[in-house]
Queue: 4 jobs
Job 1
Amino acid sequence: MTDIWKNSPRLGKRLDRVEGLLAETLSDPGFPLAEATKRLVFSGGDVIEPLKVRPLQAGERKQGTTVRAWPDAKYFESPQIPVAGLVHVLRSKAVLLPGTRVTLTLEKSGQRREWHYESGLRGYLGEALGEPDLPPLLQPQGYVLL
């Protein structure tokens, strides 16, 4: 993969603009997050479908974010997403945000992976080591001893 930040400063500016639009929209106090579903579509850093808001249907989730992404050949050497790297990043989000459920669905293959560590790093280490009950030494306390 190319160094997209060095080779394409336009991409960085476009991502900043996308991030700004999302932050502005979501920080509006009149924007009811749990009462409606929202859809905003970007392509190449530009809004191609303006924000659409519709009321939630009965039984629809009131929380969560779905991000769908496709590599743009203009910025990447290959249209193939490096799945191993993506898996690593998504799993780390679940580890660092205890209680958060992170799901990866590869639409082409139908493969689905999900990570959820209620106790964060402790849960991850317990799973990785095959030890559900970690010794107290490995239980994070929320602070660092120097």
Job 2
Amino acid sequence: MTALVLSAFAGLIYQFGGNLNNGNPHAPGSHQAAVMPNSEPADDSADKSSARNNNPVIPVAAGPVIEINTEIGKLRVELYPEYAPDAVTELIKLTESGYYDSDTLMQSRAHLGFAIAKLGQSPKTFDFEDEPNKLTSRRGSMAIARSSASPAYLNNLFFGYRSQPALEKHYVIIGQIIDGLELVEKSPSGLRIKVNSFKLIDRNQSATKPGGYSG
């Protein structure tokens, strides 16, 4: 089963290496608003009761918050500069420059337990080093692929619906969704959601306060 999951993950990395706008109803000139279904998010009750989620809380200092404005609502992500300083610094620079404000799509992969936000056109080429850390995946984790899996770096952002221990060697966690994940969780696999903007916000605007990181 682990091999199957890893194989599927690797396939997605290369699948998304192409242009998401190919055949995409959200491409310029053919945009259609995504329709939220009535389906429920994947059941992660088994994950909640796992030994992994009974580990002691890993302290995480209050980090900057990015707001991702999509056509179906807003997600807010707390970043972890303490554990991925280079990636977080670069992500904030890209956010403030408007890098993600056009041609970015979020696609649900509910059957695999995560969603991916990817630039559709002219992605930046990065020269980067991995920043492995001790954070383990859980519901709402935001991660980037390690260089051994993909050169995409901050062009591809992954959002977990549940703990993904089998995939952790392929990515590095750099933040945590603190508000809005349920919007994407309820989307059917394959649905492409238009991202309107990324912006850095005052963390006091965030409804959820940091409470450490439970691995």
Job 3
Amino acid sequence: MRPKRDTREGVQNPNHSTEATALRRNPSPFRGREEVTLAWISHSLINPRQHRFVEFVRRELNIDVLEIYPSKWGDETRENGYPINGTNMGEFVFGSGAYDDVLDFEPDLLYLQQELWSRAALQAAGFSKSTRTPLVTFVWENKRPLAQIERGILTAVDGVVCGNTEAEERLPDDVETAVIPQVGIDTELFTPGDGDATHDLVFPSRPSPEKGWSLLEEAVEGTDLTVHRPWEQGEERREYGAMAKEYRRARVCVQPSVTQEGWMEQFNYSVGESLACGLSAVISDCGSLPDIWGDCPAVEVVPEGDVEALRKALLDPPEPGGGREYVEERYGYRAVAERLTTFLKTVSQNL
């Protein structure tokens, strides 16, 4: 565990008044207590994948969680959300009411799941400083060099949860970090089927260059392999949990992602969900894919962009045995929730 710097200078909150705010700070909110309070702040909490995991943390680990999320994000909506100013991850901040509710809730700790280069991170850092509430952030970013705004916000955070090892490696050595995914995989929702798959392969991602759709088309050309493409199902696929049925229509999940300027794979939940459904997987070595999934006995890793290697792996894919167990042990709800809680406790006890 990395040691944490002690300065909290250099940040301003762009959307919160500090008038009449009492300065308070519990130097060790988790120590010696059975229940803790946590303000969990993220635009992605609007998505069922995220808030189902938070509900597990609340229910199973005895943590009182206040969720702060937008009422609308793109074409997704969720009741009891908050208005936001801005329309993309980098520019948006929460509008009136959100941080007022955080202040009333008096959490022991803020857990922000927004990239450090965002205005939402700047907003949370300002609130943390003005109220002296400890702040832990989550980051996926694993490609771009550390920006000046990130360096400034890092002086205000008490710990960083990194979604992959590359995200951790781009941070300064004196930042306290842990490598833990954003949420766990729901292995009660994603379960094996009855073995009546109708396709050889499932390509679960959008048909875009970075996800390697054109490579897959080329790799299966001239073979008898059939590919199921759930993205053709339209709105039906958007219902959380519907993908379990789509995975089970095939025997092998294929994710031949390709690095792009400013982007490479950060985790890929589709691979883990398909493994939990009893499939095996063939993936490229793009970004964090081999680090996260490469040790799974049901996964074969091929060089990104190598059509011949991809074709060979698809014609002779790995057996599915051990895939579900790998997911449950490393990335299931309980595994991720317990690792996250342990890290939050460690950070708070080091303050």
Job 4
Amino acid sequence: MAYKTLIVTGSRHAPDSKEQRDDLRRRLDRLRTEYGISEVVVGDAKGVDAEAAQWASENGIEVYRFKADWHQFSRSAGPRRNAEMVASCAEGSAIVLAYCGSLPLSKCKGTSDMVRRCQKREMTIFVVDNLFVTDGVFESVELLKEKRGS
């Protein structure tokens, strides 16, 4: 199945090594190839957002950045931005890469919020964190829960 949009969400602290950066880029390449991605939606933060935006630009893929207005909305700025990112995607047009690198998803609060929002929209979500990283094999959130017993 082809999807137009890839939402990328993740830790501001990842990728924290060349290996993680290369891993993130390999996963982005694979998603582009397997799903026909033509645009990337990111949260315009450092870390995974910045790396995904750079990758997309380098590969001629349109990038849509959503900036959180921390000054106006304080602590609710991140969740508001996340809601805008999800709402920007037409029904059935997007998949999600949640990349936490060496952190567990539970420690990536903004990423966890995005995953919950995307689950409500029944989007396909691929999670990479320290609890479940495989050799280039993607798993959906549902399968991850089953394997983790949660």
